[in-house]
Amino acid sequence: MDVLEKRKIQDCLGLPTGWKREEVIRKSGLSAGKTDIYYFSPCGRKFRSKPQLARFLGDSFDLSAFDFRSGKQLSVGARKSKRLKNIQYDYSRGLKQDASLVLPIRQTASIFKQPVTLKTNHAQNRIKADPKQDAKDVPKQVRYPDRSKMNVRQLAKCS
Fold first, then answer.
1. Nearest residue to 27 via CA among 60, 1, 59
2. What residues form DSSP beta bridges with 94?
3. Biggest alpha carbon distance in the chain?
4. Neighbours of 61 (CB within 10 A)
5. For the chain, what are the domain ranges?
6. Band of the pLDDT at 148, cuts 50, 70, 90?
7. DSSP readout, 81-145?
8. DSSP code of residue 31
9. 35-40 and 7-11 as β-strands: parallel, antiparallel, unpaired?
10. Which of these, 78, 89, 90, 136, is most buried using a 10 Å CB contact count?
11. Which spans does this entry mark as compositional bias, Basic and acidic residues (predicted)?
12. Other CB atoms closer than 10 Å to residue 152's CB: what's the count?
C-alpha cells in the first residue's frame, strides 16, 4: 500500500473554519494499525495534542467539549469517560495536583537531636572482660618460609 492511502486529510467541523484534520495509520512496528491524529491551523501549523491546541487558541475557542480523536464537539451532557469525571485538567497548564495524589514524605528520626546522657557509676553498666577472648591467638598471615628470611635488597630483585 502506498503512504498516501494511509493518510486522510479533511476539514475539521469541531474547530473554526480553515482547520484541517489529518488521520495517519501507522504502517509498521509494534503499534502498526493504530492511528495518529494531527490538526493543521489555517496558517499551516501542525498540532499533535489537545494541550497544544489549547495553548495556541487560548481563550478564543472553548475546547472543553471538543473530542481530539474524532474532531467533533461532544454534546453538553455527554462525558467521554467515567474516570475523567473527577480529574480537573487545564490544558494550558497541565494536570492539577489533588491532595490525595501527593506522595508521602519519608520522615526519619534524627538521633543527633536527642540529648545523650552517659552513666558509668552503676555496677550493672560495667563491662566485664571475657578471659576466653584474651587466650585466643591472633590469626597470622601465611607466608612462604623463604620470603620471610629475605632482606630488602632481595625483595627488590624479585619484583
1. 1
2. 90
3. 99
4. 14
5. 3-94
6. low
7. -STTSS--EETTTEEPPPGGGSPPPP----TTSS--------GGGPPPP-HHHHHSPPP-----H
8. T
9. unpaired
10. 89
11. 127-149
12. 6
Alpha-carbon distance of 82 to 79, in angstroms, equals 7
Whether residue 37 contacts residue 71, with contact meaning beta carbons closer than 8 Å, is answered with yes
Q: C-alpha distances in angstroms, 92 versus 14, 54, 58, 135, 158? A: 19, 6, 8, 78, 75
Q: Residues 66-76: what's their mean pLDDT?
A: 82
Q: What is the pLDDT of residue 3?
A: 43
3-state helix, strand, coil in the chain (%, to 5): 25, 15, 60
**Which H or E element spans position 51?**
helix 50-57
- pLDDT tens-digit map of 37-50: 999 999 999 999 88
Residue of 130, 61, 134, 132 whose CA lies nearest to 91: 61
**pLDDT single digits (tens) 99-118:** 666 677 777 766 666 666 77
The total of other beta-carbon atoms located within 10 Å of residue 7's CB is: 13
